[in-house]
């Protein structure tokens, strides 16, 4: 049956579907169709949507034949309520304080039509500079790899990650894509807190020369594996350790800086200014009270820039709610050297 659909390249299909699902726009009464006659690598996917007028403007809406389908059996169908969970590759993450309720949700997730290999429950808060947490394994199919390890796909890229070793949030896929879309071929991009590479690898794929640093050896190990996996290892230089150790080597080098270390990134504003070239775009992430969410990031950059750079705010963006009255935000700013 012909229905309004978002047309998207196959490699971007899962990330786009997740983006539409977050906005409650996927029409669950119909299946996703694949373009007829196209080679697999060139084929488009057609994702049916409930309200074409509500689809973000950067996505293409067309009418296309899609198959009617029997709706998937969801965890909510089995539980009688809508549980909160996140999918990271074939691992599902839940956040329940009540062990019995957590086990009930895990059982429903496994019995549902969601493709899942393991179910984990958060067993601690995020800890220390590495921002990892403990996990309780609620379900595990028993494959060779650890239940905390998976391969996550977003916007045409693959990221191997072990959530017991490194921090990773699938919720930030749209935000990461927003930043990467601004990258121009030939840029010098420095990812100061790179993790497993969800910014660094797409930036390299967009044609940038990337330097990626992280305190955690496991994060850099996964980043290097992911760079190979995505065919961009020749455009990424990695560094294990404090990013401030790179200021002499990469002084005045960067055209773009990603500072995704909420709570403390603003404390590295002096380092960011040391890296900045004559004109440098900075994406500084922070978590602050809703009354003044951007003030600390802006003040930190302006104080660090002093009379060396003019600081221009490009965008103040709320990424998501973090806690009651606290927001995870991103300040996009440009540093222009003052002659």
TrEMBL record:
InterPro entries: MeTrfase_TRM5/TYW2, SAM-dependent_MTases_sf, TRM5-TYW2-like_MTfase, TRM5/TYW2-like_N, Trm5a/b_N. Keywords: Cytoplasm, Methyltransferase, S-adenosyl-L-methionine, Transferase, tRNA processing. GO terms for molecular function: methyltransferase activity. It holds the Pfam family Trm5_N. GO terms for biological process: tRNA methylation. Residues 85-337 form the SAM-dependent methyltransferase TRM5/TYW2-type domain. The keyword S-adenosyl-L-methionine applies. This is Class I SAM-dependent methyltransferase.
């Amino acid at each position: 049956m012909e229905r309004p659909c978002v047309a998207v390249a196959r490699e971007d299909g899962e990330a786009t579907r997740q983006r539409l699902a977050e906005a409650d726009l996927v029409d669950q009464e119909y299946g996703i169709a694949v373009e007829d006659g196209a080679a697999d690598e060139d084929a488009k996917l057609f994702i049916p949507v409930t309200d074409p007028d509500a689809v973000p403007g950067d996505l293409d809406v067309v009418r296309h034949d899609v198959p009617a389908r029997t709706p998937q059996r969801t965890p909510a169908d089995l539980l009688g309520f809508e549980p909160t969970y996140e999918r990271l590759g074939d691992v599902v993450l839940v956040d329940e304080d009540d062990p019995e309720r957590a086990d009930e949700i895990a059982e429903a997730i496994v019995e549902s039509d969601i493709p899942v290999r393991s179910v984990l429950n958060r067993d601690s808060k995020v800890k220390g500079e590495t921002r990892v947490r403990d996990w309780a394994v609620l379900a595990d199919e028993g494959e060779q790899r650890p239940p905390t390890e998976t391969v996550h796909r977003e916007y045409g890229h693959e990221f191997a990650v072990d959530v017991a070793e490194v921090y990773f949030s699938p919720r930030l896929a749209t935000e990461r894509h927003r930043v990467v879309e601004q990258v121009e071929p030939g840029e010098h991009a420095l990812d100061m807190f790179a993790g497993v590479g969800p910014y660094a690898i797409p930036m390299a794929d967009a044609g940038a020369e990337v330097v990626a640093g992280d305190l955690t050896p496991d994060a850099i190990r996964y980043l290097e594996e992911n760079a190979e996996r995505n065919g961009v290892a020749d455009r990424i230089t990695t560094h294990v350790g404090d990013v401030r150790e790179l200021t002499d080597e990469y002084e005045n080098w960067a055209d773009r800086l990603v500072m995704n270390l909420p709570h403390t990134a603003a404390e590295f504003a002096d380092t960011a200014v040391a890296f900045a070239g004559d004109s440098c775009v900075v994406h500084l992430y922070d978590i602050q009270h809703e009354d003044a969410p951007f003030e600390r990031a802006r003040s930190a950059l302006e104080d660090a820039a002093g009379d060396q750079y003019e600081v221009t705010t490009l965008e103040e963006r709320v990424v998501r709610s973090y806690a009651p009255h606290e927001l995870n935000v991103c300040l996009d700013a440009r540093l222009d050297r003052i002659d």
